[in-house]
Structures are given as C-alpha cells and as structure tokens.
Amino acid sequence: MALKALMAVTGLILIAFLLMHMIGNLKMFLGAEEFNHYAEWLKQDLLYPFLPHGTFIWLFRAVLLACIVLHMFSAVTLWHRAAKATPTKYETKKKLSQSYASRTMRWGGLILAGGLIWHLIQFTIAPSGPSPFVGVRDTFQNPAWVAFYLVWIGVVCIHIRHGFWSAFATLGANTSAFMKTVLNALAYLVAALIFVGFAVMPVAVLAGGIQ
Asked: How much is the pTM?
C-alpha cells in the first residue's frame, strides 16, 4: 500500500508540474520580453532573497527528478510483485484491462520520463539561442520537432488520463459510483487541458503566429 501511495503522490506532483509548466509556455504569446522575464524569474529570482540567486531552480529539478525515479521505481516494483505472485491471473487481467491507457502505463511512464529529461536539458539546463524566447521559437520552427513534441504530449496525456484517476482512487477518493464518475471526468479534463495547453504554442510558432 505504501508503494501505491508513493506512486500516486509522485504522479500528482508531476501532473502539477506539467500544469505549471504549461502556463509558463503560454507566456510565449505575450511576446519575448514577457517570456524572457518569466524564464529569468524562474531560474534566478524565485524565492530570492530567502535563497541565493539561481538556487531554487536546481532544488526544483532535484525534487522533480526524485519524483520521476520514485514513481518509476514504485510502478516497476508493484508490477513485478503482481506478475511474480500470480503470473497467469495477472496476464489475463492485463489483457482484459478496460482502457488502452491502463494497458500501456509502463511504456507511457518511460516516454514521459524520457521527454521530461530531454526537455529539461534542451530548454533549461543547456538552452540554445541568445534568450529563452529565441531558443524555444527556433526549436519549434522545425516541423520535425513539433511533430515529435505533439506525439510526446499525446502519449503523456494518455498516461495522465489513467494515472490521475488511479492516483485519487489509491488515495481513497473513489468512494462511490458518483465519485468514480467525477474522477473520470476530471481525468479526461486535465488530460485534454494539458494536451491543448502544450500543443497550441509550438503549432502557433510553426504557423508563424509567434514571431
């Protein structure tokens, strides 16, 4: 039960990060000055002077990485225990899963983790371009990167749709048929919001709507 709770909590933290990051991405529509100011504040000034310049972002990255590692460790451990305990029954249940998302959670988790690491390296740890705005804009002027990004976001959102519901069910929120319906609706809403929120900016850059 502890591993299930750990997987649920770390998963929800990662979803919260995606929502926060999505809002930051949308600042691209406000122009270079606003986006660069946001990026500088996030990397240098957040929690200053409580913390020295540039400290928070590294603490944040460490927490994010820890959540990814713990989330994947919990998922793999639980899957391995279930498969080892009742392999025949487990395989049958897996094939009869109610949704595509539930059948592909492990692959979705790996793709999500890989994409997050790539994204952190390319845009925050070792950014390209003279400014954050230019780096992001130049990246998404390449159709191949936009296509890759949209596919990645799509896979992530399939993972989120199932993971969101599972996390709250694990934490005890699935207490009735009504709550199951509410959690399902919220899961679809959050997944759709994240997909649209992340997709609109790179598509706008590629279409020439953000200069």
From this structure: 0.83
